[in-house]
Amino acid sequence: MADAPGLALLDDEPFVSLTTYRRSGEPVATTVWIVRDGDALYVTTGATTGKARRVRRDPRVALRPCSRLGRVGEDAPSVSAVAEIVTDPEVTEQVMSAFRSKHGVQFRLAMALERFRKKGGGRILLRITSG
């Protein structure tokens, strides 16, 4: 597992496999959009998702570059980090702007489709740092 410099290796990745941990310690990997803002990487997710619940209980995460469909290369590095939930509206707007800038139309369409499907709970950010 890599440390802080490892997070920088993920800056240009459009997607990463984010691993969070169940109470049992079992890892759960999910493909997510990622963006850097300042000294942290950010992930956006639904407020009521499993990964959000798991991060609330256990902030440990692991990140690996992956494809849009979650395919992780055999030699893909794994970066250990910690995540925290961000609720500050100013930070949220700044980071969501970074997501729109980095991921463009694809991100905007995904967010529009999500709003159309009316998933409850809204969106949150996970701030990921080397811990």
Structure description:
With 131 residues, the chain is an alpha+beta fold. It has one domain: Pnp Oxidase, Chain A, CATH 2.30.110. 32% of the residues lie in helices and 34% in strands. It is built from 3 helices and 7 strands. The chain has a 7-stranded antiparallel sheet with strand order 2-1-5-6-7-4-3, with helices on both faces. The longest helix has 29 residues. It is globular and about 35 Å long. The relative contact order is 0.25. The model has no long low-confidence stretch (mean pLDDT 85).
Helices, strands, pairings?
Elements: H1 4-8, E1 15-21, E2 27-33, E3 35-37, E4 40-46, H2 50-57, E5 60-65, E6 79-86, H3 89-117, E7 123-129
Antiparallel strand pairs: 1-2, 1-5, 3-4, 4-7, 5-6, 6-7
Pfam family, one: PNPOx_N
Protein name: Pyridoxamine 5'-phosphate oxidase N-terminal domain-containing protein
Domain Pyridoxamine 5'-phosphate oxidase N-terminal: 8-115
Could you give the distance between the termini? 13 Å
Order of helices and strands: HEEEEHEEHE
Structural shape: globular
Mean pLDDT value: 85
Number of helices: 3
Strand content: 25-35%
Number of strands: 7
pLDDT < 50 stretches:
none
Query: What name does the CATH topology carry?
Result: Pnp Oxidase, Chain A
CATH class: Mainly Beta
**Widest sheet, order of strands:** 2-1-5-6-7-4-3
Please identify the structural class as seen in this structure: alpha+beta
CATH architecture: Roll
Q: What is the name of the CATH superfamily?
A: Electron Transport, Fmn-binding Protein, Chain A
Q: Outline the biggest β-sheet.
A: 7 strands, antiparallel
Query: Helical residue percent?
Result: 25-40%
Overall domain count: 1
Radius of gyration (CA) equals 14 Å
Keywords: Oxidoreductase
Protein name: Pyridoxamine 5'-phosphate oxidase N-terminal domain-containing protein
Pfam family, one: PNPOx_N
Domain Pyridoxamine 5'-phosphate oxidase N-terminal: 8-115
